[in-house]
Amino acid sequence: MATTEKQKSDITHKYLRPQKSFPSVWCPGCGNGIVMGAFVRVVDKLGYSKDEVAMVSGIGCTSRLPVYLDFNSLHTTHGRALAFATGVKFGQPKMKVVVITGDGDALAIGGNHFIHACRRNIDITCILINNHTYGMTGGQGSPTTPEDAISTTTPYGNVEKHFDPCDLAMAAGATYVARGTVTHYPQMEKIISAGLEHEGFSLIEIISNCHTYYGRLNRKGDAPAMLEQFKENAITTGKAKKMDEQELVGKYVIGKLHEDNVKSEFCCEYQKLIDHQKG
User: Which of 13, 118, 125, 155 has its CA at 20 to 30 Å from residue 41's CA atom?
Assistant: First the structure.
């Protein structure tokens, strides 16, 4: 039976910190709230207790998300969420450790930590909310800002090549990689759930809207208009296989992009080393 809107609301409120006031710090229409709702409903469906989950974030609009949720949480310095999360997972390997980050936080100042978390294949689920800009600090260009796009630091258009976070994660060694958008809500829940259940480093990239900066500067319209654009430009992995490279320009390929269940997980390998040294 389908979950009603009231039931969804009740589930979400069950995981909110009672002392946090709403509305949130996010702009009206921001996709971060959609991701937050999806995450807590997945946790509820999987049956994790609040004590089993640790959420880690750095600095940015997206990084405010764990502040509102009643799990073990760690709000860290800019770009260092994955480094702190590695320490948490290493110290408490049975916990579900989740990093909530943005494209600037994870891939610019945090880029080194990102590639090494992938390389180690440590069992962390990284939910990277990609809005193609630095939202909290003023709309500066980020590593995912498309070429020719306008930002406060590229007022005449961006001339830098941009990162594809999923390609980067796969190349660096992540063993579960998927992409969704805030428009494709049921599919987003599925890939977050699969990422949490996967043993190894999981990257879940969620394409989201920053209509306040990126949308306004690039004449993408308001929040509903940007959500509609995600719907129009998203292509499933199945359809993408039948399209050539030129046809995929400007499109978002959504779904599971990569999964490797053979590569060993970092904490497991380290425990084997400890056991071996103990004789």
Answer: 118
Cβ neighbours of residue 81 under 8 Å, at least 6 residues apart? 56, 57, 58, 63, 99, 100, 101, 105, 106, 110, 113
CA gap 61, 2 in Å, rounded = 31
For 84, half-sphere exposure in the C-beta direction (CA atoms, 13 angstrom radius) is: 21
Model pTM score: 0.94
DSSP string, 141-171: --TTPPTT---SS-TT---SPPP-HHHHHHH
Alpha carbons within 13 angstroms on the beta-carbon side of residue 114 total 32
Specify the 3-state DSSP secondary structure of 20. coil
Q: pLDDT tens for residues 228-271?
A: 999 999 999 999 999 998 999 989 999 999 999 999 999 999 99
Note the CATH number of domain 28-278. Answer: 3.40.50.970
**Of 187, 194, 190, which is closest to residue 252 (Cα–Cα)?**
187
Could you state, in order of their start, the residue ranges of all structural domains in the chain? 28-278
CA nearest 177: which of 185, 168, 120?
168
Give the DSSP H or E segment for 87. helix 81-91
